[in-house]
Structure formats: C-alpha cells, structure tokens
Amino acid sequence: xxxxxxxxITQYPIWIYTxxxxxxxxxxxxxxxxxxxxxxxxxxxxxxxxxxxxxxxIALSRYRIAGVSTLRYLSYIIIRYTAAYFIVFSAYAxxxxxxxxxxxxTLDLPIIELEAWQLAYSFFDHSYAYQAAIGAIELxxxxxxxxxxxxMLGSSLLTIxxxxxxxxxxxxxxxxxxxxxxxxSLASYPLLxxxxxxxxxxxLNANTSTTVYPLFNH
Length: 218
Description:
Blueprint: H1 3-31, H2 40-61, H3 70-95, H4 104-108, H5 116-126, H6 128-145, H7 151-172, H8 177-187, H9 189-193, H10 195-202
C-alpha cells in the first residue's frame, strides 16, 4: 500500500476522535444554555455521533495549510480551552471548600446507615487540605492547558487527577462519572494526539519532531 495513503488512513481515527470531542464540547455548552430542552444524558449520544461524522468528513477532505490541518489546529485549541474552562470551576469549588458538603443530618446517622456517597462526602469534607491540594493541581493543570507549549504537561496532571475522580465516582456511587469521563476525554487530548512523540521519547529513546503551528511558525 502507498505510504502516503497509509498515513492518511492512520489519521482517520484521530480525526474521528477529534470530532467526537468537539461534539462533547457542544454538549457541555448545550446543558449550560436555556431553554434546557433535554437532559445531558439524552443529548450526549447525538452530539458524539454528529461530531464523529464531522471528524470523518474533515479527514476525508484533507484540507491543509502550511503542512498542518487548520481545522485540526483550531479543534486542538477549542478542546484545550473548553477543558480548562470547566475544570477551573471544579478547582475553585474545592479551594473554596464548597465542593464536598456534608449535611448535619448525615453527621447524626450511624456509620452503618450511611450510603456509599455519604461516606465519601464525609471523608473528603473532613480534610480541607486534601480538597485544596486536588483543587490546586486541577487549577495548575487547567492553566497549563492554555499554552500550546505546556499543554502536554497540564494534560498529564489532569489525566492523573481525573482517572482518580472516575475511580472514586464508581467506587462510592457519586453519580458524577459522566462528567469525569467527559473532562478526562477533553483534558487527555493533547497526550493522545501526540502519542507518537511520547512513544518515541519514552519508549524508543529517539528524537521527536517539532510541531509547526499555523500562524505561529515565524
């Protein structure tokens, strides 16, 4: 098979995933905008499907400027900034000590009568230092996502934090796993689209190429 054709084919999954994430961005905006026609869970599959179709269409179009797809570059910016925007709110709530709130009614109950999510909230609400540390790391990761030079570092920090959040949600039945998966998908995007560079650097101990950005390559 022609090498050029093979390279184009290998880009299709990346483009489809990019489109899916843009659909996720649209879904996040949808749930924040009146008149709230349907729930996030109901709208999410449609946005993801349409995004995937759009991503495949972009891949097939092969519209390129200066050797780098302008649409892919703009997508990269949109996804990074959306992830940073929503994660900042989560970080602020933890730093403000308002993320995990335990009611007085819960404190009056015997431990054996508490639900799993109540145990988790009581545990995390007990230590502000823990909340503040998680919030500070989230805030730092979100800030690092804003720059293309530090995006992969921010993505690495947030990926670790969000994987932990997903495990906690499933383990203690907090019902926030959809949000956590959504943020993980967005925040880990810089790592996923640069997987080849990471593999060459960490596994093969080889040199990596420099990314050329449209409008910023001079």
